[in-house]
Amino acid sequence: MKRARLIYNPTSGREEMKRRLADVLQRLDEGGIEASCHATTGEGDATRAAIEAIERGYDMIIAAGGDGTLYEVINGMAERENRPPLGVFPLGTTNDFARALGIPKHWEDYCDLVIRQNPKPLDIGKANDRYFINIAGGGTLTELTYEVPSKLKTMIGQLAYYFKGMEKMVSLAPQELIIKASGQEVIHDEFMLFLIANTNSVGGFEKLAPGATIDDGLLDVIAVRKCNLAEMIRLVTLALRGEHLQDKKIVYFKTDYMEVTSPGYVQLNLDGELGGTLPATFRNLPHHLNVFR
Ligand SMILES: Nc1ncnc2c1ncn2[C@@H]1O[C@H](COP(=O)(O)OP(=O)(O)OP(=O)(O)O)[C@@H](O)[C@H]1O
């Protein structure tokens, strides 16, 4: 029997885990995996639970929840020498990461994926002293991921982000950024936002970074130069079709290391969570985690 630590957020998405837990444990058990559970209680708890699971020598860790729970779990794992395989059980509202990797959403299919025990390596990103698995970003629009109330997400799911997104679009302001990336000329300009993608699915946009792959050792950088609301809406429309990267308002490149500074106050968003402020260094950590996928 292998031992798994299932770290789940009982409040994620539509609170599915509350109903499914017994079934999940039973199916894993039948597949030769004895799982014990940790239900998270609030901010930072999944990080502590992941550190403890490694110290207690579990054979694998399964993070069940949304992108926020996954972010906390990888931040507990990334600095450890011994990093057991990670399961990403998608139960959140958007689940960008699971969607990008084609990880099954249905609980039975997901359990079967873990039971097959075939984890594959993938890159993660490091922003200053924190880690992200899907996306890092900065600029007013990126703040919306942590401003959407959890209760609203439970009630109306993805729509909650659209409402908040529309509200934020009208108050968008450009910020001066200096971007120094390895293999690139220094860029100094005013930007609406910048994103650093590790996967191709971000914020529910499945074609935001079409060229981003999870194990190429590189981060895909997309920055939107200063523009007005009409241009911003045009870019969002293009992004839905994956046709935005050629636009003259967009800066796009791949890199393994980058520094971003600003004379202003710019908050960082890491996998949808507040991740400090600029200045920041971003680097790719190749094949740092093994994930069932
Ligand atoms: N028991 C709990 N009660 C309230 N909040 C919790 C609890 N456990 C964890 N949290 C908080 O939930 C947040 C993470 O939510 P998570 O991303 O898993 O789900 P979600 O918000 O529904 O999904 P998504 O990120 O896809 O929108 C973390 O900020 C964490 O602090």
TrEMBL record:
Residues 1-131 form the DAGKc domain. One of its GO terms (molecular function) is ATP binding. Pfam families: DAGK_cat, YegS_C. Its cofactor is Mg(2+). GO terms for biological process: phospholipid biosynthetic process. Its EC number is 2.7.1.107. It comes from the Bacteria. Belongs to the diacylglycerol/lipid kinase family. NCBIfam families: PRK13337.1 (NF009874), YegS/Rv2252/BmrU family lipid kinase (TIGR00147). SMART domains: DAGKc. This is Diacylglycerol kinase. GO terms for cellular component: plasma membrane. Keywords: ATP-binding, Kinase, Lipid biosynthesis, Lipid metabolism, Magnesium, Metal-binding, Nucleotide-binding, Phospholipid biosynthesis, Phospholipid metabolism, Transferase. It comes from Paenibacillus peoriae.
